[in-house]
Description:
Belongs to the flavoredoxin family. By secondary structure, this protein is α+β, with helices and mostly antiparallel strands.
Amino acid sequence: MEKINLPKASKITSPNPVAxxxxxxxxxxxxxxxxxxxxYLSYNPNMIAYAMAKSSYSGELVRENKKVVITIPSDNIxxxxxxxxxxxxxxxxxxxxxxxxxxxxxTSNIKVPxxxxxxxxxxxxxxxxxxxxxxxxxxxEEVYAxxxxxxxxxxxxxxxxxxxxxx
Length: 167
């Protein structure tokens, strides 16, 4: 075996889950941020975790509000996933800039992108410093899905977004 770095290992271990974290801004509007990793922690009680850079505006919002909706984007909006990961909501209203169609879920004030395969409504339980990221550990409150939508994953070290069938 050859010695490699961790970014190269992430290419070898593709695909990886990808999600859009939806948080509420102080004005009540929704902010969107792409995360390149999440995982289910427990089914009793229902818990999920995701990681974000310490400097993330969405991370700041979830630490303040304690509410977040983690959406699993579908292949219908895969271009938006990359765009949402390349701009900060602190400076950019991503929803209007990228003309993202949004929808309500019944039990949250936080809107989610249309064409989400799933929406996992959560309450922040705790967050832990993990190097240059925080690990957000959340209690799941509600889960919604649209079985007509096909989830996407990140490929090639997070340089491509595609469904598993497409790649």
